[in-house]
Amino acid sequence: MSALAQTDSNSSTQENRQEIVEELVVIGEPVDSLLNFDDLERKQANDLDDIFSGVTSVLVGGSVGAAQKIFVRNLGEDTLNISVDGATQSGVTYHHTGRVTIEPELLKQVRVQVGAGDATSGPGALGGAIKFETKSPEDMLGSDDFGAILKTGYFSNSDGTKNSATVYGRLNDTFSAIGSYVASDQDNMEDANGDELTGTNTEQELAFVKLVGDFNGGHKVSLSYENLAEEGDKLTRPEWGEGPRNPLRALEFDRTTSTLKYEWDKPGSDWVFLDASVYQTDFEIYRPFDNYMSDVKTQGYILSNTSDLGGHSVTYGSDYRDDEVTAGERGGAERFVETSNVLGFFVQDNYRVTDSLLLSFGTRFDDFEAVDKEGHKFTEDGFSPNLGFKLDITRDLTFSGGYAEALRGVETNDGFKLFGTTNDPDLKAERAKNIEFGVDYEIGSFLLSAGYHDTTIEDAIGNAVPWSRHYENLGDLESDGYSLGFTYNGERLFSKWSFLDTSAEINGEQLTRYAYGYLGTSTGDTLSIDTSYQVTSSVDIGWIATVVQDLNDVYVVSSDATIDKPGYDVHDFYAHWQAQSVDGLSLTLTIKNAFDKEYLDHGSVEDFTDIPGYTGIVGYPAPGRDVRVSLAYRF
């Protein structure tokens, strides 16, 4: 994967084919991956796995959308700072589900920052940051005053449908608005052998609205509200396979996120670009059979300003986040409650020293505080510095690198574990130390790249293995490896090949999903291929492949046994047609897992079924072939 790989944004064909752009967004900081809504439309993305397909640094584990977990270079969700329009999605509701639910139809773009990064990444971004950004009316309107998109889609594997309606328009010279409603209804999926994956059925509804006011003098205000609700008959542990220890039961999910944002780009001034937002997120999981609920409420603010001073571009400000996890019987008088908050201050400077040298340096100071259900109070504060560079040796050859730290104090625990959870009263904060180096060489339409990364998270917090309810400092978690990249960006053909070799260990033991949960996983060497071709001005086709090597003889201390993780190669194809005779009409055909490959992805719970006493401990296999067809009409 590239440390600095940018495509020609001025190419006329660039807008009409799938792209995954990886670029060094902040000089000297780790690689980012950027996906836009055209990418998601061509994939016909239906869940997190679809969103990140073809992005080598990101692995999504699990077949059940509600149970999918995100890993960045083998480090899990518990090490990441994940946000939607700046609203942090923190806290854990249920350890057998994911902490993030998002509807791809809603998204304008997704950015992944790999590894501890710059001071603006937010507090506690030990393994990186994932930033989901939703659509705004100006993204859709262009020169029009009003528009709408009606879309319907069919999924063959689950015999499912997804229908959506989006309307957007200018209310007057100042205000514009966008609103979306998405409804999907899908039956149980099947694996490649034709066996039904019980508990993968779902009914989901999304309501989203955003109001934007663009005032004179560079002032801009936006208010957005999103509600995503899902229900279905899920396995008690949705991330595990079906078995006697994992019965089928109803499960309900509901997430709401509200964000108020203010921007001021003062005309004629290089000193003022103010960006402020306040947000609130509420994510609840409810299990009707025992009337148990787990709810995470998060609220906070982000305030920053950017000033350009000579060769410096300095961003500085403050952020704050408050989390509350409540769990127990719905409507009951007694519930378990834990709280945590963090107040941060940050400054980041991008400084052009010469025409060929750019430096990036900054720091943030965070003050963490948490109170667990036993009344134990945990406090920690400290600085997280960073330093990076980009050096153009020649016009075509670039070196880049950086060092960054990130601090994270004790936070709230999993709501479904609170009734039995205990914390080591001497819990210490975690600190990540991340080193990145990269080189890029451009030859005409070709780009060659290589990178090296080394991340250590000191005093990593987790359960005493295997799956106890006691949280302690487990030791040092390390992730290191290298990446290679090859990109061709021609007039009609775009092809990107990315290879990643990375390992994740804690105290010398390879991470496994079963033993270490949210902290991370271990994967074989991974090759991602993303190729698209503009057949005509109205037709483009694409191929996305993921090839993962075997990972054998992984020793698991808690089970005193070794396991194997077989490799796999998965191929997706798509074709997109934009009608010429009917303005605004488009058709997309996507074939997921086109060769009907039977496999267990390396982000899922590993197969322990051959080990005595571990019967039933295995993740769900991936879905088999899925033919997706969608028809959209924009007017």
Key attributes of the depicted protein:
635 residues; mainly beta; Maltoporin, Chain A; 6-stranded mixed sheet; 3% helix; disordered N terminus
- As for the CATH topology, it is Maltoporin, Chain A
Q: What structural class is derived from the secondary structure elements?
A: mainly beta
Which radius of gyration do the C-alpha atoms yield?
Answer: 24 Å
What name goes with the CATH superfamily? TonB-dependent receptor, beta-barrel domain
Helix content: under 10%
- Please indicate the count of domains: 1
Q: Count of DSSP E strands?
A: 36
CATH architecture: Beta Barrel
Low-confidence stretches: 1-31
What is the C-level CATH assignment?
Mainly Beta
Mean pLDDT: 88
Q: Tell me the β content.
A: over 45%
Reported for the largest beta sheet, the result is:
22 strands, antiparallel, barrel
Query: How large is the count of helical segments?
Result: 4
Gap from first CA to last CA: 39 Å
Principal-axis shape = globular
